[in-house]
Write a structure and sequence with these properties.
Length: about 150
């Protein structure tokens, strides 16, 4: 990871313990969402893309299906209650595992201040962004299918 200062989302979140061992001073930001809203969004975006857009010749898609669908959700990613339980268990495990001084439990509604305080950087003048909505993600997936 030379030259990089951060990693986000899958696949890195699946290996947070290994990353913490390798980078003992790393800080972790656990971005929380309501489990029902998370599932609604994931099932319309990430999970739908995993089920439909990656053919057998797409290595990135194969890796994502293996890591997310099989390894993380045991093939039951579209089972709402099971997926929410896995999501909640992951969040709880991160809270138990990551030392408190290296963990920020964050919700986007909190805005810049706690995030910037944790990262020891100044708060930007612009408003905290609201991006990556379900609709925006779907548009990116459509554009990806065309390429």
């Amino acid at each position: 990871f030379e030259g990089y200062q951060a990693c986000v989302d899958w696949p890195s979140c699946a290996f947070y313990e290994e990353l913490l061992t390798h980078y003992p001073q790393a800080k972790v930001i656990l971005s929380l969402r309501d489990p029902d809203k998370w599932f609604d969004s994931a099932s319309e975006t990430i999970f739908k893309g995993l089920d439909s857009s990656f053919g057998p010749s797409n290595l990135q898609g194969q890796m994502a299906r293996k890591l997310i669908v099989e390894n993380t959700f045991g093939g039951r990613h579209m089972d709402r209650e099971h997926a929410k339980a896995v999501f909640t268990a992951h969040n709880d495990a991160v809270k138990r595992t990551v030392p408190a001084n290296r963990l920020l439990v964050f919700e986007a509604s909190m805005g810049w201040q706690p995030l910037c305080d944790f990262l020891e950087v100044p708060v930007p003048a612009q408003d905290y962004p609201r991006t990556n909505s379900t609709d925006e993600f779907k548009q990116r997936m459509q554009a990806h299918k065309k390429t």
